[in-house]
Structures are given as C-alpha cells and as structure tokens.
C-alpha cells in the first residue's frame, strides 16, 4: 500500500499523552493514528447510514406478522 505523509499540529498535552500511551503499550504511533482515523471514518459512515434509515418509512413488527399470516407464510 502506498503511503502519504500527513503533517498536522495538535495540542502538546495530547501529543505527550499519545507518546506515553503508545510507548507504555509498545505501539507504533503511525499505526495507532491510522487505526484511530479509520475508526472515526467508519463511525461517521454509520451515522450517515443511521440518518438514512431513520428517514425511511417502516412498518411495525405487528403489521409484518399480520401480513405474513394473511399470505400463509407464517
């Protein structure tokens, strides 16, 4: 996988905490940050999907059961 460099500034206390956290656990900072970014991206995708689902019409469970019974499928 090709890699690109990312440069950013963060609060020094956050950076110090990140350094300590990764050092204590034997983690590589780059890998930790990649995983954290991927997790956050997936979280935002989930929120987007949830908003779409909430805007869709739905039927109650009871209505679905009634329909299945009426069609002889239950």
Q: Which labels suit this protein?
A:
69% helix; mainly alpha; 74 residues
Q: What would you say about this model in short?
A:
The chain has 74 residues and is mainly α.
Give the SSE map.
Layout: H1 12-25, H2 29-55, H3 61-70
Description:
It is a single chain. The chain has 74 residues and is mainly α. 69% of the residues lie in helices and 0% in strands. It has helices at residues 12-25, 29-55, 61-70.
Helix content: 55-70%
Q: What is the number of E strands?
A: 0
Radius of gyration: 23 Å
The averaged pLDDT comes out at: 92
What is the global morphology?
A: elongated
Give me the strand/helix succession.
HHH
**Helical element count?**
3
User: Termini separation (Å)?
Assistant: 50 Å
Q: Output the structural class.
A: mainly alpha
Low-confidence stretches: none
In this structure, how is the largest beta sheet organized? none
Beta-strand content estimate: under 5%
């Amino acid at each position: 996988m090709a890699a690109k460099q990312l440069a950013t500034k963060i609060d020094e206390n956050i950076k110090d905490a990140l350094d300590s956290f990764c050092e204590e656990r034997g983690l590589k900072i780059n890998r930790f940050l990649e995983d954290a970014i991927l997790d956050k991206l997936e979280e935002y995708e989930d929120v987007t999907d949830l908003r779409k689902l909430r805007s869709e019409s739905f039927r109650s469970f009871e209505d679905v059961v009634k329909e299945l019974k009426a069609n002889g499928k239950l």
